[in-house]
């Protein structure tokens, strides 16, 4: 189960490059239900996500590089390219800050994952996070991948 809140980030933190990060490339084989392939650094996954906004089921299956490259040719829509920074927050939480490149260059989204729905609802985001877009389908990566 994935429980997360999502925010549009307007102001990047100082010393961003000092945080751990991952280079991510992902594409969608299907957007309803969501079936995604992802390369994160040198690891490869096939992911299924159920419908939902703040709470969704999510299953990750490992892929080989060869399987990933084969499925990559079958992607529907645009390949998403982003750098994900892992920024520690109070309470043992982590902000996954995605700085998009390619066709989505300029977009910056932050996600915070939680153990429970109650924890997610009670979360008070720092002011610098910007607009809460948790309940907007527009900022799901599967939707972003379909933009012209």
Task: For the structure shown, list the relevant keywords.
148 residues; mainly beta; Hypothetical Protein Pfu-838710-001; nine-stranded antiparallel β-sheet; 3 helices; 9 strands; globular
Plain-language structure description:
This protein has 148 residues and is mainly β. It has one domain: Hypothetical Protein Pfu-838710-001. The protein contains 3 helices and 9 strands. A 9-stranded antiparallel beta sheet has the order 5-1-9-8-7-2-3-4-6. The longest helix is centred in the middle third of the chain and has 8 residues. The model has no long low-confidence stretch (mean pLDDT 96).
β-strand percent reads: 35-45%
CATH topology: Hypothetical Protein Pfu-838710-001
C-alpha termini separation? 31 Å
How many strands, what sense, and barrel or not for the largest sheet?
9 strands, antiparallel
Radius of gyration, in Å, reads 15 Å
Q: Based on the coordinates given, report the CATH architecture.
A: Beta Barrel
Specify the number of helices: 3
- Strand tally, please? 9
- CATH 4th-level superfamily: Hypothetical Protein Pfu-838710-001
Q: Note poorly predicted spans.
A: none
The secondary structure category is mainly beta
Helix content: 10-25%
């Amino acid at each position: 189960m994935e429980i997360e809140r999502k925010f549009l980030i307007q102001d990047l933190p100082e010393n961003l490059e000092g945080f751990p990060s991952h280079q991510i490339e992902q594409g969608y084989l299907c957007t309803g239900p969501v079936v995604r392939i992802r390369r994160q650094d040198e690891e490869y996954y096939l992911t299924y996500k159920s419908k939902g906004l703040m709470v969704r089921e999510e299953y990750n299956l490992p892929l080989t590089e060869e399987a990933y490259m084969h499925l990559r040719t079958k992607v529907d829509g645009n390949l998403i390219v982003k750098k994900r920074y892992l920024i520690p927050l109070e309470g043992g939480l982590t902000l996954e800050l995605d700085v998009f490149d390619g066709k989505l260059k300029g977009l910056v989204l932050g996600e915070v994952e939680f153990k429970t729905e109650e924890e997610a609802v009670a979360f008070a985001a720092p002011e610098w996070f910007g607009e809460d877009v948790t309940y907007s389908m527009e900022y799901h990566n599967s939707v972003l991948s379909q933009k012209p």
